[in-house]
């Protein structure tokens, strides 16, 4: 009926709420179904969708009495705990909850008893059928897609529900260009869940989605795909199309994407990315040597000097956000110093520092469990001080004690987010901007950069001297990049301001590691989860 509200799954801690006229589902039957073709189902229901992002709009608790008929949540493995917290709150109110996304696909055992229905793998084919059954009062408890979706059939996101949010709350958005990854890294489950073949969305469809976000006022956009250059022909086609798109809008959009280190060897791709106004790239560097990439099957990272590769990318105006991991079997106590020296030499301003963590659904999880080295963190640390920081590891390290690894990580973190070290990396980035594509000048961006500089002066733990020196160097060398450089400095301000909290949590965790008896997950011989 008119006014009924429902929605496809959103992201965990970025949950999509489904709302309609109040109804009871107490008599619903739960079974299992799979869908193989998008055309198999059609929706005649007038659904009303509300998207709620906890990171932007606050905790979902404020929605508990909003009268939703259905709540849909989706997210990654790192968000599964928060998804269960959100689900429990709505279920306590008698509202059915469904959960989808990579997290529950990798760990479907987390659903029964806590969630009314789970969606395994891609949901475009199963979600419409589920909604029809939900309307009829007979729904499946497990909805599993069979086969791989033709991404041309993937419906566009319903962004209309966030159109009324203040512009300050939605400066950055995301659009998916492809799914899949040809690589088989041991600690990653993308290739297991989504496949090693790269499936792409049509370029006109992608441009339409970008245009929708641009009209909402977004100026920065992440291409939310695990390997943007996985299909080079498609990536180049999209990059060429972005140039006239940016020329046609009032203010050019800035783009970022996740790519592999192989992009450093592709000058043509880097030039096209610069012309399309790419200002950043997320790259899984993980380790500075060859032993750990070989161990974890990250062979794409074993092609030359990684410092030189990073410095090959930056001249095109693309700042590298490098993901680093400590705790591989081959890592020695010197790994923390090696990673810090690498980040400084490669001028990577904003790295992502991680512990090795065996997530459900990965080959690493299976190996660690089979070897009896997989830690049950919930039972070992019920008072977990690191909860919410994404700084936990559930494995036994081969060459170091867990307390030593946490202590080394803390030292690395403090070195990386030290303002003087950050300033040196940023000055290196600016100095390396020698192959910038010609862009449409926009003097407003210079003023925005100046305004941000003043804002940063008032942020706790900020260093005005480093901020001013970096800004002055930018104005002198590349004035029209002042806005993008200021955006990087804002991220440093955030990391420096929040540093006391993770530092305190890590110190407490180090003490616990030295005294707490660890409880391990029961070993088994099961292979890594593979979803057809």
What's the quick description here?
By secondary structure, the chain is of the alpha/beta class. Helix content is 38%, strand content 14%.
Topology, pairings included?
Blueprint: E1 16-18, E2 29-35, E3 49-51, H1 54-57, E4 70-74, H2 80-92, E5 97-100, H3 102-106, E6 117-120, H4 127-136, E7 138-145, E8 172-175, E9 178-179, H5 190-193, E10 199-200, H6 203-215, E11 220-223, H7 232-248, E12 254-259, H8 267-275, E13 278-286, H9 291-295, H10 306-313, E14 319-326, H11 335-345, E15 352-355, H12 363-370, H13 377-380, H14 402-416, H15 419-431, H16 443-457, H17 464-477, H18 482-498, H19 500-515
Parallel strand pairs: 2-7, 4-5, 5-6, 6-7, 8-11, 11-12, 12-13, 13-14, 14-15
Antiparallel strand pairs: 1-3, 1-4, 9-10
Relative helix content = 25-40%
Q: What is the number of beta strands?
A: 15
Which oligomeric form is depicted?
A: single chain
Shape: globular
Account of the 3D structure:
It is a single chain. With 532 residues, the protein is α/β, with parallel strands linked by helices. Helices cover 38% and strands 14% of the residues. The strands form three sheets. A seven-stranded mixed sheet has the order 2-7-6-5-4-1-3, with helices on both faces. A six-stranded parallel sheet has the order 8-11-12-13-14-15. Strands 9-10 form a two-stranded antiparallel sheet.
Sum up the structure in keywords.
single chain, 532 residues, alpha/beta, 15 strands, globular, disordered C terminus
